[in-house]
Specification:
It contains seven helices and no strands. The protein is an all-alpha fold. It has a domain of about 40 residues. Helix 3 packs antiparallel against helix 4. The longest helix has 23 residues.
Length: about 150
Amino acid sequence: MSIKILNYATEFLQSLRFVDFIDIGVIAILIYLILVWLKKARVRLVLVGMIILGLIYILARFFGLYLTTMVFQAFFAIFLIMIVVIFQDDLRHFFERIAVIGVTRRHRAVAPFAQNTEMLSSALADLSRKKMGALIVIRGTDPLDRHLEAGVV
């Protein structure tokens, strides 16, 4: 038994090519990018729902539930179109990031921390003296462009 396993492992290692490692690397990077996008897009509930529906579909096929299988197949085609429509902005940002990775990386000039802090403190002091309120947004890792397009600045 152990000789059989050893022969199989040796045969497997001899059949590996350099291209196979590149193939694995490409798929690993794509999976990583998709997982990062899912985390940033805050679509965890949608992902959980898709996994549950996928499990129900697999169980329906396993137990031979013909009608349920057919309904789920039709639903998945419609669901794919719904996902594209609902998350079109997030998908656009995802594909923009993929395009930027291959071409160039975005470099933005960031003012020194002390300068930003001083400017923010000064503006808040002015607002306080005038007894005015304000909504202050400090940009983190999430781009603000899509919020600014729909809102009033």
